[in-house]
Specification:
The structure holds 2 protein chains of 2 kinds. Helices cover 39% and strands 20% of the residues of chain A. Chain A has 16 helices and 13 strands. In chain A, helix 9 packs across helix 14 and helix 9 packs across helix 15. By secondary structure, chain B is α+β, with helices and mostly antiparallel strands. Chain B folds into 2 domains: 208 residues, Cytochrome Bc1 Complex, Chain A, domain 1, CATH 3.30.830; 182 residues, Metalloenzyme, LuxS/M16 peptidase-like (Cytochrome Bc1 Complex, Chain A, domain 1, 2-Layer Sandwich). In chain B, strand 9 and strand 10 form a beta hairpin. The longest helix of chain B is centred in the middle third of the chain and has 19 residues. In chain B, 54% of the residues are buried. The chains are: A alpha+beta, B alpha+beta. At the A-B interface, helix 2, strand 7, helix 3, helix 4 and helix 12 of A face helix 1, helix 4, strand 5, helix 6 and helix 12 of B.
């Protein structure tokens, strides 16, 4: 349930024996060994990924050589997301992400050197996305063209133009992105549930921001935001693909090594969510055809040791036709789809159970059915067979995510934002150790009514909406 | 200082092509029990992606004046149990090994998509065959599938993209053309009256191996797997060819160029402008038109994005593309989103760019940049198993040999400025284009 907004509108191996060798990504990647490179300190390796730090400015670098195709994915993750925003500047992270494509003195459209011109000319698949904990910029392209991309990517870390004229034209672009999202009432319901569930944490507001903030945030505020967070010691560069580590590190040093560390401490979000003392409810009424029900529960940080058990519970509840929600909600004709999924963000997360209603089903019926499934796990637990099946699905996923350099980077990017990239490997290892008792325990611990926020989308007929206005 | 920067830019913009060729040599293609089976081994370990198709899409129901919901509901019955086992047994087998298998109906094709670990490939092939060859077609499951389909249609009625696409295809392709789409209302009515006997009859008439394609990409050894495929599909008969001989959708003077699809409560409107082209993918002018269209509406440096989004700030998304030309003549379309209050300005800017592009053509510089873009994105797209499988399948469905994998970059590179600008002028007529506006339209 990533709340990710993107600038773009278009937008190895593991065999069964890995079950017996948790922690090992038994892939061609794992054969890569860390190298010594001038200016870098080697930090650690796991699962074929080597971590380095650029000594001069603290830039974190993750490399994963994979020579299966002559392509590479280069990604830079900035540890700034909508959790770093306050009222009046909501949506700034995302608006700034858009402005990052507007150019600098060295690389700009007029000179024919803009990032879009370069990356499209070389046929890269590229984009940028903003989420609650991070912003990232990435491209998958022919390995020999990575050098040219890093030159531009590194340049815009500190040399970005931030012109008021660009803010004005890009604001309306972002506003249209906001409007497109509001076309879907189910998205709106999700936003309203999130806003009701979080009182204090900045996860309260949508990553794209409130409309009035998108429209009125000043270029000075955006510049301050840029100058606060866009520094090498607040960023991680990840490169996966057809690379030679030593040459890649030299390239990264050449372009990123020109910067100093941030001259200030990167601000820390110290706000904590107060204890929720009772159930919350929201109702969205808009024109539409079929309703939906979402029940959100508070669950811990993405790095909590309870997260793997929650993931296994979700798999048992909603992965495929053999899942509990499919059998009890979809196959019975109550819902068209039903799902369970928890966030793995940096701070306290929400877990969402969703039922998109079938024709003729009421919200009350679907809500009751969802709650019954949680209650069943709390009172009767899950079977060893169900847990084993969930584990096997994770094992297969470990192999699938190595299919393409961008899928590796995509998952690493999220764990970097959560706070520990090694979870890319360790999370799957932890899933291997989840027991039926652990699943029942997390259900009892977190899935309580007083920690819940329930939302209904109630479609209204066109005529009725007009009479409500 | 300025000249130094220019020199630097020249260095950066001299992009090297991907060192990738001879792909067709690695393709292992065999006719196995009537099925066109295409294997492509890659260096990925343990992962296999399967994509396939057979001619049993919606267009066949329309061509025979059958109930228009029959193709989709027949496909929806495939994973609802077989004569050997029920749907939960099948799901348990697949999910127990972390594999996935889906069937999906498009205009002409039933599409098959699966992913599994190498060890489980025989199991997944067996399940594909079992579900295609011996669906149970039980009355109880049919009732459930019908309700699911009706629910999906009701959701589509509230979806701006779906409604825009529906209106555009109905306006551009005449009734009887394989790309003409029944309306969502027609599907709804049809789904409510469809019988299981009609589903069985459709299945008997169209399902079979004769024109089926199965593509396997990844950690796959064809010599080892062909026995499994042969065993799984042995004795299966039937099937029809795709509707490739359809009469082209001639451009006719529309009574009214603008279609308004009013939907309440929507905050962003979709604008679609386009026409039928009379061109199939394999036709000589198609590639030139596709390259020229990419100059107008592909990526951030395409003219539409640069002018209407970057310079004027009127939209989040605007693009142009050549579509629907796999089996028959297709369409050409600009697609954009605008806030209601910016719709008129956005439409005017889009029309201005379209007219300028059509009247004056593209430049040498634009063509050169777009060629390297198309070649590069094509090659990057082949770097994972699903990208390669999708490309192989679409290549053969379009009537090309697999050697097209290697020829495509050369063919793009060989397109000339004259070919592009001639194709634009010859096959497109902006003054005849249909304009569809979908959403909560501003009162005029």
């Amino acid at each position: 349930m990533q709340r990710v907004f993107s600038r773009r509108s278009f937008h190895q191996f593991l065999v069964r024996c890995a079950a017996a060798i948790p922690g090992a990504l038994l892939s061609a990647h794992a054969l890569a060994a860390p190298v010594e490179a001038p200016g870098f300190s080697y930090v650690k390796s796991l699962g074929g990924i080597d971590e380095y730090r650029l000594d001069s400015n603290g830039l974190q670098v993750l490399l994963m050589p994979d020579h299966s195709a002559p392509v590479a994915t280069f990604n830079v993750t900035y540890r700034v997301g909508s959790r770093n925003e306050v009222t009046g500047s909501t949506g700034s992270t995302h608006l700034l992400e858009h402005l990052m494509f507007k150019g600098s003195d060295k690389f700009n459209y007029s000179a024919g050197t803009s990032i879009d011109q370069y990356l499209e000319r070389v046929g890269a698949r590229y984009n940028a996305t903003t989420s609650v904990d991070r912003t990232n910029y990435f491209a998958t392209l022919a390995a020999q063209n990575v050098d040219g991309y890093i030159a531009i990517e590194a340049d815009r870390m500190r040399n970005l133009w931030l012109h008021e004229s660009d803010r004005q034209s890009e604001m309306t672009v972002v506003r249209n992105e906001f409007e497109r999202g509001k076309n879907d009432p189910h998205n709106l319901l999700h936003e309203e549930i999130t806003a009701a569930a979080y009182e204090a944490l900045p996860y309260h507001h949508p990553t794209i921001g409130w409309r009035s903030d998108i429209e009125h945030v000043t270029i000075e505020t955006l510049r301050d935001f840029y100058n606060t967070f866009y520094w090498p010691d607040n960023a991680t560069v990840t490169v996966v693909g057809d690379i030679e580590p030593k040459a890649m590190l030299a390239m990264i040093r050449k372009y990123y090594g020109v910067y100093i560390k941030a001259p200030h401490a990167i601000p820390v979000v110290y706000t904590e969510e107060p204890e929720q003392t009772g159930p919350r409810r929201v109702v969205v009424k808009k024109p539409g055809e079929l309703g939906s029900v979402v029940i959100a529960h508070k669950i811990p940080s993405g790095l909590s040791p309870d997260q793997p058990a929650i993931a296994v519970m979700d798999s048992i509840l909603s992965d495929g036709k053999d899942s509990r929600l499919y059998r009890t909600l979809v196959d019975t004709g109550l819902a068209l789809t039903a799902s369970a999924h928890g966030g793995t963000f940096h701070d306290m997360n929400l877990h969402f159970m969703t039922a998109n209603l079938a024709p003729g089903t009421t919200q009350s019926q679907a809500e009751k059915a969802l709650l019954e499934q949680i209650e069943l796990i709390k009172t009767q637990g899950v079977t060893a067979e169900e847990v084993a099946q969930a584990r096997q699905q994770y094992r297969a996923d470990r192999a699938y995510r190595l299919d393409g350099t961008d899928s590796v980077v995509e998952e690493l990017n999220e764990w970097i934002a959560t706070g520990d990239w090694t979870q890319f490997v360790r999370f799957s290892d932890a899933v291997e150790k989840v027991t039926p008792a652990a699943v029942q325990r997390v259900a009892k611990t977190y899935f309580n009514e007083d920690q819940s926020t329930t939302g209904w989308f109630v479609p209204v007929a066109k005529g009725k909406l007009e009479s409500m206005k | 200082m300025k000249s130094l920067m220019v020199a630097a830019s020249i260095t950066l913009l001299t992009a090297a092509p991907l060192a990738w060729g001879g792909m067709a040599e690695h393709v292992d293609r065999k006719k196995i029990d009537g099925i066109d089976v295409i294997g492509y081994p890659t260096t990925i370990k343990d992962v296999v992606t399967i994509m396939g198709a057979l001619p049993a899409g919606d267009a066949f129901a329309a061509a025979d004046h059958d109930n228009v919901a029959v193709a989709t509901l027949t496909a929806m019955m495939l994973d609802r149990g077989t004569t050997k086992e029920d749907k939960f047994d099948i799901a348990k087998k697949l999910e127990g090994v972390g594999a996935s298998l889906r069937f999906n109906v498009q205009d002409q094709a039933l599409q098959i998509q699966a992913r599994c670990l190498k060890l489980d490939l025989p199991l997944v092939i067996d399940l594909i065959a079992e579900q295609l060859r011996m669906p149970a077609f039980s009355q109880g499951e049919f009732a459930k599938a019908r309700q699911q389909f009706i629910g999906q249609l009701k959701n589509a009625m509230d979806n701006v993209q779906e409604r825009s696409a529906e209106a555009f295809k109905r306006a551009v392709f005449p009734l009887g053309h394989p790309n003409h789409e029944p309306s969502i209302d027609e599907y709804l009515t049809a789904a409510q009256t469809l019988t299981l006997d009609e589903v069985r009859a459709f299945y008997r008439k169209y399902y079979g191996p004769d024109h089926m394609t199965l593509v396997l990409v990844g950690d796959v050894n064809m010599s080892r797997i062909q026995g499994t495929v042969a065993n799984a599909f042995r004795g299966w008969k039937g099937g029809v060819d795709y509707l490739r001989d359809a009469k082209p959708a001639n451009l006719t003077e529309p009574q009214d160029h603008t279609i308004a699809v009013e939907m309440p409560g929507k905050t962003s409107i979709i604008l679609a402008i386009g026409q039928s082209t009379g061109l199939r993918y394999k036709d000589p002018d198609t590639l030139a038109l596709m390259v020229g269209t990419a100059v107008l509406g592909s990526g951030f440096t395409g003219r539409l994005m640069h002018a209407v989004r970057d310079n004027e700030g009127l939209t989040y998304s605007i693009s142009a593309a050549v579509n629907n030309n796999t089996f028959t003549d297709g369409s050409w379309q600009v697609l954009a989103s605008f806030a209601p209050q910016l719709l008129d300005r956005g439409t005017a800017s889009t029309q201005r760019e379209l007219q300028h592009w059509w009247a004056d053509g593209v430049s040498d510089e634009e063509l050169a940049a777009r060629k390297t873009n198309l070649i590069g994105t094509y090659q990057v797209g082949l770097a994972d198993t699903s990208g390669m499988a999708r490309t192989l399948l679409s290549t053969v469905l379009r009537g090309r040999d697999v050697t097209w994998l290697d020829q495509y970059p050369k063919a793009v590179d060989a397109v000339t400025l004259l070919q592009v600008n001639t194709a634009i002028k010859q096959h497109l007529r902006p003054e005849m284009m249909i304009v569809v506006k979908t959403g909560s339209l501003p009162k005029t």
